Amino acid sequence: ETKSPDPISNFKSPTPQQLVLFRKLIEQGKQQEFIELVYNNPRYLISSGDTPVILQEGFRYNAMHVASKENRPHMCELIIRTLESIHFWQVFLQTDNKDSLNSSVNNNRRQFLVDLYLNTPDKGNLETPLHFACKFGHLDVVKYLVSHPLTSITPHNRYGDTPEEVTITQTCSEYKRKAIIKNHYIVTYNYFVPVFGSQDNSTPPILGDPWSPTMAQGQRRPPSCSSVGVYSPRESVRAYAGPMSPSKASEFHRMWKTPPTSPEDRKQYTNIRRGDSSRGIERIGR
Hints:
This protein has 14 helices and 3 strands. The chain is mainly alpha-helical and 286 residues long.
């Protein structure tokens, strides 16, 4: 049987003038107008080569560079959430065919594009959105970026500096100095404890081992789930705790996984897990 080809998009690319207006929307944090534009024409975010759209020539900033530079954490989250949304790709590919949308090809397209938005360096100092956020002391942007499993934590800019090193060396006011210290903490203490589960609840959730993006930059999956990809069409990260320090992540994982010692608490623990097979483990973690 011949498989139908993956759909393509017929949307036209925005004009340079339209992209300037789009960039200003991001700079100003106008989330509702952003949503209306990208859902009317997904080409505001996806170029003809399935790469990030350049919103500022010269330095070649994409939407995440712009949002990080302008200290727009909610806009950063909205950009990535949109790119990860099945509904957004339904609009982009103009199809309701779930088999096609969930094909390995289109899952890889989504993951590849998100990775590019999070980790592509600009053309000037070869700095990623995380470099920008650390350099300017944008705490909430840093916190969001390091919380995403695809963000590379240790890329080097033109001068060989990682985001953490840019944070430490940047000269600034007393307020920014305090912010930098907190940034350093956020970048360093970025361990998570994930919960994996199937999208259709056909299998019980699995508690993963403590994991950090810095553990293996080329490996995008927690070590305890080597057979389950983070962005598999069937299994995905359902919830996570963090970011936190490595020692706190290990302790949290132990407490989350191990039933309480007292009979009363142990009974409650068991009842929650058995009574809610799809969300019980998440309730225990909370």
